[in-house]
Amino acid sequence: MTTFESVTRPEPVAPIGLPARREAEGAHAPGFEYDVAVVGLGYVGLPTALAYHAAGSRVLALDVSPRRLDLIRSDRADLLEGDHERLRTALDHPDFELTSDPDRLRASAAVIVCVPTPIDEHLVPDLSLLRAACAAVLDRVTPGQTLMLTSTSYVGCTDDLLVVPLTERGFVVGTDVFVAFSAERIDPGNESFGHDEVPRVVGGSTPQCEEEASRLLLRYVTDVHRVRSLAAAEMTKLLENTFRAVNIALANEFADICTSMDLNVSDVITAASTKPYGFMPFYPGPGVGGHCIPCDPHYLLWQLRGSRVAAPMITQAMTEIAARPHRVVDRVQEVLSGSGRGLTGTRVLVMGIAYKPDVADLRESPALEILAGLRARGAEVAYLDDHFDLVALPDGSTLLGLTPTGAAAFDPELVVLHTRHEGTDLAWLDPGRIVLDTTYRGADLVNGVNL
Fold first, then answer.
1. Range of the domain at 409
2. Where's the UDP-glucose/GDP-mannose dehydrogenase C-terminal domain (predicted)?
3. Is 292 designated active site?
């Protein structure tokens, strides 16, 4: 098999939801207590650790947060049901260890870093968590280990945080220790694509690093696509999410155009989607949340600014995405003004504040900016989302969530439909109540108004 090609393991892992482990004899890394250590047990790290364990690996799962470890041990982490089954199996198995002790990393043949790489309020990359995680790994590196980053970052990050420091410490990368990058591809809350079934792109610091990393990934995934370098693997992830960001910005622009022409943008997108080639549907909304799309392209733009390389299309798309929650606030004011009312003193309820349906995840959720923006303009605001009892807003204030009964008693004059979770009850929204539908899919709303 040549170096730069897709490789496939002949026997696929068990599908998500099957709690039984595969016990592969002779598959364990010799000389180490664990086959894989996962650093960071968030929405990427924990499912990754569970997938490796379900595929038969001995797994060390590390997180520095005692609260996070307590949530995991009590099976209260936000996971797909299949991963909850895997977690319950893992917690009772001797080949799965939860720990907060980084010294245990010495006992693992491979170390995978899965920590967040957010941006700050100025849209500048915040690498503090990744730097700290890599430093902890480097302080305990053992000859023969494979080190892999999965956290999205700038091109060259793996070199800067792992390869260069290892070389300075006297290690020969590709002989003494192996370094690779393979970005995560998890879609939280989406059960259509099992973590094990999504192909993984991997690049190594040397051909042997790439080979070792491919073997590591094939312990649990069914398909690995190799690229020629660490940099190519890092750029692949940036392209994936920048592509999505640009197309979402375009969908938002078309939504505004359609609104101005009294057209339903969802009908237009559905019609365009009937073309079997050359078109991929993207949908408008109140903004973009989660860790990937609002953040990842800024790592690329930040790096390009340092090189004085212009990327006007990406820059404009990210500017539009950042401004979208403010457009929602403006639209609320427009709709109220059209009915002879203003925002000051008006009761506005935001329904659903998670960044996407059916996840308990507020990262970069546009709803937080919308709530803060409405409050700043004098509205009396509240929210309804049974995933969250309390939220902190960007202005530093906090807001308690309402129950459905409390929402009805709040008697909002306008409702912003932000996130429609499965089972969201809209029956109480009587025809006399204005509903601003930021999802553009509320065909069953009696008095819905598109964003």
1. 229-451
2. 349-442
3. yes
